[in-house]
Design a protein that fits this description.
Strand content: under 5%
Structural class: mainly alpha
Distance between the termini: 49 Å
CATH class of the largest domain: Mainly Alpha
Oligomer: single chain
CATH architecture of the largest domain: Orthogonal Bundle
Shape: globular
CATH topology of the largest domain: Tetracycline Repressor, domain 2
Number of strands: 0
Helix content: over 70%
CATH superfamily of the largest domain: UbiA prenyltransferase
Largest sheet: none
Radius of gyration: 19 Å
Number of helices: 14
Length: 292
């Protein structure tokens, strides 16, 4: 049962909430124990909230998921767990999250509340509307970063927020492309209504635009006056190649290997991607914290 609930709560998807730590890293507070602990608490709260949304989404989409070649293996559509048990777990998680979040400042509470209701609206409405579905996903990632900044009371660069918006749009569009590809290859028919409003060519064009947005915004962030003033160096520009390679590698895996259905699994299993992320983090920490 533990394994089943592990899948129900989609624990591996918690990796998306690591965006909460972005403000901690770039505010030069990574090695401050108290601030780090606060950010970890924010991460946990976003993870609990995400799991609540995932379970609600699976309850709502149970019939559609049963027709999907991959999603049919999830606990709810496969019948490994009942709707009643799933609802009970949602209520328990919701009570725990409300209790824990009440200890933090009002602005963070407002942010995570907005994150919750945005995802509820996505589950019931937005995911059925072309383009609004991927923009809702992007807004969720932006709220993670904003929440990470609010909980430790630091400012975050507008360029960094824009970079987050474009990278989440990129991931959302690439996932739509992968879903379309799987649907066409398996000839199972459209399992997500909004997919009928997309095409492979359209999603490729959108992903190219979003990828360009990520690279441009991050490059501008790395050389902006505010960045240079705060970090006392222009060397952050040298982290840009890792961002560019990461974007290109992701596009390669999706377009050439058809591996974009599960972003988390791809990030955790593709060795070049793992090395790129680790080298990016190591280089960024070294530059931002003037370790050499």
């Amino acid at each position: 049962m533990i394994k089943i609930y592990f899948k129900l709560f989609r624990i591996p998807q918690w990796i998306k909430n690591l965006f909460v730590f972005v403000p901690l890293l770039f505010s030069q507070n990574l090695f401050d124990g108290r601030t780090l602990l606060t950010s970890i608490e924010a991460f946990i709260l976003f993870c609990f909230t995400s799991s609540i949304i995932y379970v609600i989404n699976d309850i709502v989409d149970i019939k559609a998921d049963q027709a999907h070649p991959i999603k049919k293996l999830r606990p709810l559509p496969s019948g490994k767990i009942s709707k009643k048990s799933a609802l009970t777990s949602v209520i328990i998680l919701l009570v725990i999250t409300i209790f824990l979040v009440s200890f933090f400042n009002l602005r963070f509470i407002s942010c995570i509340t907005l994150f919750f209701f945005l995802n509820v609206l996505y589950t019931f409405f937005f995911k059925h509307i072309v383009l609004l579905d991927v923009f809702s996903i992007a807004a969720g990632f932006m709220l993670r970063i904003i929440g990470g900044a609010l909980i430790i009371s630091v400012e975050i660069s507008s360029w960094l927020i824009l970079t987050t918006m474009f990278i989440s749009l990129f991931l959302g569009v690439m996932k739509r492309y992968s879903e379309l590809t799987i649907t066409l290859e398996d000839k199972t028919g459209i399992t997500r209504k909004v997919l009928s409003d997309y095409s492979l060519d359209f999603t490729k064009q959108l992903s190219t635009i979003a990828a360009a947005g990520v690279i441009i915004c991050y490059a501008l962030y790395s050389v902006s006056q505010r960045t240079v003033r705060v970090f006392g160096t222009e060397n952050l520009i040298y982290t840009t190649p890792f961002v560019v390679f990461g974007i290109f590698r992701y596009m390669y895996l999706v377009f050439m290997n058809n591996e974009g259905e599960n972003t988390t699994q791809m990030m955790l299993t593709d060795l070049p991607m793992i090395l790129t992320v680790l080298l990016y983090i190591l280089t960024t920490v070294t530059i931002v914290y003037n370790l050499i």
